[in-house]
Specification:
5-stranded antiparallel sheet; mainly beta; 136 residues; 55% strand
C-alpha cells in the first residue's frame, strides 16, 4: 500500500520535469553550415555556421562554436561571441581539418549558449549538426 504514494509522487515529478523542459526560455538553432568548397577528410577548410538564438534567462551569454575534430564524442571550441538578451542571428567561423569518423560517429559542429563563469558556468541551450565529409 505504501508504494502508491511514491508512484503518484514520481508521476508528479515526471510531469513537472516535462513542463519545465517545454518552457525553456533560451534556444539556439543552426540555420546554415557553409563552405566555399567540398568538405574533404584531412583538407583544411573554413566553415561558417549561422545561428539564430533566443536568450531570456540572462543579460548576456557566450555563443560558442565547436567541432569534434579530435575525438568523435568531444567538441573543441573554435569561435565565440558575446550576445545580449533577446533574439538575433550570428555567424561564427572556424578553419578546421575535417575527420571521417566512420562507424564511430559523424563529424559535427556544435553551438552552445553559455552563461556564467568558472564553476557557475551553465549551458543554457545547444544544437549540433552533422557535416558530410568526403574521402580525400
Amino acid at each position: 500500500m505504501r508504494a502508491i504514494p511514491f508512484v503518484i509522487l514520481g508521476i508528479f515529478f515526471l510531469e513537472l520535469n516535462s513542463q519545465a523542459q517545454e518552457e525553456k526560455p533560451d534556444a539556439v538553432v543552426i540555420k546554415t553550415v557553409a563552405t566555399d568548397k567540398d568538405v574533404v577528410r584531412g583538407v583544411e577548410t573554413e566553415i561558417v555556421v549561422t545561428i539564430d538564438y533566443r536568450l531570456q534567462s540572462a543579460d548576456e551569454a557566450v555563443l560558442m562554436l565547436g567541432f569534434n575534430s579530435d575525438d568523435p564524442s568531444r567538441f573543441t571550441p573554435k569561435d565565440s561571441t558575446i550576445v545580449k538578451a533577446g533574439t538575433g542571428s550570428v555567424s561564427l567561423k572556424a578553419t578546421i581539418v575535417p575527420v571521417d569518423w566512420g562507424e564511430r560517429g559523424s563529424f559535427s559542429a556544435i553551438v552552445m549558449l553559455v552563461a556564467g563563469e568558472g564553476v557557475k558556468r551553465e549551458t543554457l541551450a545547444s544544437a549540433h549538426q552533422a557535416i558530410e565529409v568526403r574521402p580525400f
